[in-house]
Amino acid sequence: MDIKQIFKNNIDWVNEKLQLDSNYFKTLSKGQNPDILYIGCSDSRVSAEELMGVSPGDVFVHRNIANMVPNTDLSAMSVIDYAVVHLKVNNIVVCGHYYCGGVKAAMESADLGILNPWLRNIRDVYRIHKEELNAITNQDAKYKRLVELNVQEQCINVIKTAEVQQAFIDRNITVHGWVFDIHTGKLIDLEIDFKKVMENVMEIYRLKR
Predict the structure, then answer these.
(1) Per-residue model confidence as pLDDT tens digits over 110-129
(2) Which of 2, 15, 108, 175 is paired with 36 by a 20 to 30 Å CA distance?
């Protein structure tokens, strides 16, 4: 891609927005009030706002390799804190996608250097669900299922945080697990029973206030 073309595209985008609303950027600069925190993958094929059909200001977005939420990642933890405590979002979405390179790499035994500690989190997901995954003989189906299970486990990691537990008590915040199917372009709701998961998690991870 020609980098100069990006700036030309930007000018076209600015003009398009101003034609629709001459105060568009003045309004945008006043602040943000999103209702959703979206945690997704950094994959270049997966654009959060575009696949959801939302506009700037509608969604607070955090992306990393394989949409992970490890409690040791200060970036992810800071995003959750800011979105939940300060922006007061009412929905948190963890969105994975089929044919995720990070999940595929975690299924392999290769030494990937600096990526190893990060991928270890996904390998832990495999370990937790080893019995189910090892029973799947089709590699493509196993790959897709690990993507889904990884989303599920990252939702649980979100629920473990003090900010989300308190927001659940205060305003009934909800956590959703989705998968983006690159083959069809459709979003799939994994229909995770958030309240049931919350009850199970809080039995061990409950933080008293």
Answers:
(1) 888 989 999 999 999 999 99
(2) 15
Q: Among the options 62, 95, 100, 176, which is catalytic?
A: 100
Q: Is position 45 annotated as part of the catalytic site?
A: yes
Task: Look up 183 and say whether it is catalytic.
Answer: no
Tell me the C-alpha to C-alpha distance, in Å, between residue 115 and each of 77, 101, 120, 133. 19, 12, 9, 23
Q: Who's near 37: CB < 8 A, 6+ residues apart?
A: 59, 60, 61, 62, 79, 80, 83, 84, 87, 89, 91, 92, 93
Domain residue spans of the chain: 31-205
Given the candidates 3.30.2350.10, 3.40.109.10, 3.40.50.1440, 3.40.1050.10, the CATH classification of the domain at 31-205 is 3.40.1050.10
